[in-house]
Amino acid sequence: MSAQAQMRALLDQLMGTARDGDETRQRVKFTDERVCKSHLLDCCPHDILAGTRMDLGECTKIHDLALRADYEIASKERDLFFELDAMDHLESFIAECDRRTELAKKRLAETQEEISAEVAAKAEKVHELNEDIGKLLAKAEQLGAEGNVDESQKILMEVEKVRAKKKEAEEEYRNSMPASSFQQQKLRVCEVCSAYLGLHDNDRRLADHFGGKLHLGFIQIREKLDQLRKTVAEKQEKRNQDRLRRREEREREERQGRRSGSKNRDRRRSRSRERRRRRSRSASREKRKSRSKSRERHRRHRSRSGSHSRGHRRGSRDRSSKHKKEVWTIRK
Q: pTM score, two decimals?
């Protein structure tokens, strides 16, 4: 990659797709299904294992450092939960790797002679010491490259001690094996990257393996997968708690609404009863007034009727008296 291309990639990684106003690049968003979510989280096996014996080639989905920068900016404002997609991707890849490891172990078991459990345990001890030596040498080389010479020297001293233990373990293993079978029982499958390890590999071979890009790449992928599983579990738990809290708040609001509705109904019923009582009292007053007016009219009517009958009786008596006087006068 040229210096100009490296500078462009660095700017993309730092500033995202909008750094130079290129609208064609902004047409594909980081949320697009075609974008590799593992790439956005910097854990795609296609990137990590590029240039190794297990180079997977180009990923079928879009890889763009500018989109990763867009994602990192957006993820600070809201939770996009892309970890779940990346976790599924890495789980599928690691499951396939483990399947290859089991097949390699099966082929070794078929091609190599059977040995007793005691001999197998001694061979396993040699393999473990080989791994320790390889890991220590790889770490010492890394520290030396970083300029930490003192720590590198300390690790090299530990390597010498492990080498002495390995020599003793090899002697025990050699003495327990027939000479014809000793060279055949020499391979083991690496549990991390599925590569074959020899029982009698020299230190340089072991250091190259455990410090190599392939082995370290698989360690990175497996560690990232463990981290993603933990992150996804925490976020799912948080989401479940948020969902439970929202449901409780909704139920509480519904209960409050029911209580409020019940209070409103009680108030409406109380007002309705009060209106009925007022109407009843008003109707009673009207009835009392009506009865009072009726009695008053009745008294007045009786009073007028009594006066009229008395006047009529007086008039009758007067006419009778006058008639009698007239009769008496005539007779006289």
A: 0.62
